[in-house]
Each structure stands twice: as structure tokens, then as C-alpha cells.
Amino acid sequence: MKLDRIGFAYNPTKEAALELRERAEGWCQMRGIAHWAAPAGELRALVDALPGTGALVVLGGDGTFLRAARAVAEVDVPLLGVNLGKVGFLSKVETNGLESVLAQLVAGDFDIENRMALEATVDPGGRGETTETFFALNEIAVARGALARVCRLEVEIGPSHLATFTADGLVISSPTGSTAYSFSAGGPIVDPSSRNLVVTPIAGYLTAIRSVVVSPRHTVRCRVADAYDVLMSVDGREDRRLAIGDVVSVCEMSRPIRLIEPRGAVPFWDLLRQKSELLPS
Predict the structure, then answer these.
(1) Are 53 and 126 found together in one domain?
(2) What distance in Å separates the CA atoms of residue 88 and residue 281, rounded to the nearest whole number?
(3) Residue 173 to residue 32: CA distance in whole angstroms
(4) Are 137 and 76 in a shared domain?
């Protein structure tokens, strides 16, 4: 599949991202390739421009990538990340490989990897009246706010009660998000091409359950049984305040997010090792 129109989502707060956008646009102009660019945080601008686009190339770190992924949850276009961040688990290309990977895109020299994404709904007061729906590529977290007071969270998996956690919160992650907040909370790293939900309490108090891996056929429900200040965080980029009695339900999104795998990209487990070596010990 050759691409004849490319979109670029970038981090407008980073000078390096602006310079990279200019490089990308210049490359496309020299070759007569249709293209457009928009800040990754401007959801409506991205959604409006995506129809008819063959690929959305993200110029930035993982946070920029997650903001751009919100748009392709609405309009199904494959994503490719060019890393400008410190770690960049979601990116397949470093900045010095920009031009060569654009040539691969135009030539159709790439594969597509499907990644499971999450859909979360909020039921205020647990009355069975869903009012809001959210999308996440990495995770949905229900966690205490600014005050250092634990929450009491009742967690169900499908028809079963898993546990009532007294904790700082709960992370429900996709396989892609298993290297992010979930891992920091003590969850396992899951192959990103698999289809599972990873449920992990954050600093759980006196609990034997540290983390569980759940089939995608189940919905995970988290009811706020008691809390002074509690939020739902979507991929760390969008917060929604919750109240006692609210229920957050998380399940697999109806379709996957498509990520571009360029020829010669580093396999995930090698990438994990390489990125881990960059982190402080």
C-alpha cells in the first residue's frame, strides 16, 4: 500500500519538534507528496484533516503520541512515532531516520501492527446511566488527587468481585500501556500485540492481589466506595473528577489502533532492553 497523503502531528512546545516538522514538510514538498500538519493536542483539527490521509506521523515523545492517538480512535488512520522524548516506547523511528522512513511510507514498504485500545465509561452514582465515554491507548487510572489520602475501590471483573482495594488508586492498562504507569505500579510487561487488560492497584494496603491479567471479553468495573479526592486519568492527559458511588467501566475498544511497523524497526523485546538501559538505575 503506497501512501500519497501524510499527516504530521507535533508537539508545538518543543523547538526540536518544530524543526522536525519543517524537515518533514520540506521533504514532502520536494517530492510532490500531499501533506498537512497540526499540533497533537488540537483534537478537532486532527480529526477534520485525517479523512483521506494514509498515515499520521507523530513528531514528539510518548505524550505527544498519546494525544495524537486520541484522534485516530475517531478516524481510523495508522500511526507512526518519530521519537523526540527521553524513552519513546511508542516510537519506531529516531529523528535521524525521518527521511528514510518517509520514503518507506511513500513506497508502501511497511507492515501494520494492531494494538488493543481501551474504552472507559463513567456511571455517576452507579445508577446504570452512562454519561461519558473515553478512549485510551495506554491506561485508565482511578487514583487519589492532590491530598495524600487513600481510596477504597471495589473492583469487579465480568460477573465476579475481585477485591476491595484500599490504595492510592487502580490502573487498568492495555498491553501497549503495560510498560507505562501500570509497570510503575508493579504490573507485568505484556507483549503489545496481545489482547488483555492488566489490572494493578497502586500502593495497595494489605492486599494479596498485586496485579491480574484479564481476558478482553471481560469488562473491568471500579466503584469508588470511599475517597476524599479521586480522579479518573485517561492516558495521563485528561482528568475527570469522580465522586463516591461513581463507577468506571473499562473494556476493549471495538477496533484496534493501527501502528506502522517500518522495515528494519527494532523488535519490541529488543527495544524494551535498549530503552531500559537508558533509564536511571
Answers:
(1) no
(2) 18
(3) 41
(4) no
Domain of residue 12, residue span? 5-116+256-278
Number of domains in the chain: 2
Q: What is the DSSP letter of 219?
A: P
Q: Which residues are catalytic?
A: 62
Rounded Cα distance, 135 and 256, in Å:
11
Residue 167 burial (CB count, 10 A):
23
Sequence-separated (6 or more) residues with CB below 8 Å from residue 240: 122, 132, 134, 231, 232, 234
Distances in Å between the Cα of 173 and the Cα atoms of 104, 113, 119 are 31, 18, 11
CB 147 within 8 A of CB 228: yes
> Which one of 54-58, 238-242, 275-279 scores highest in mean pLDDT?
54-58
127-184 pLDDT, tens digit each: 888 878 999 999 999 998 877 789 999 999 999 999 999 999 999 999 999 999 999 9
Rounded to two decimals, what is the model's pTM?
0.92
Q: Are residues 52 and 17 in the same domain?
A: yes
Question: What's the CATH number where 200 sits?
Answer: 2.60.200.30
Chain length of the chain: 281
Residues 150 and 234 occupy one common structural domain: yes
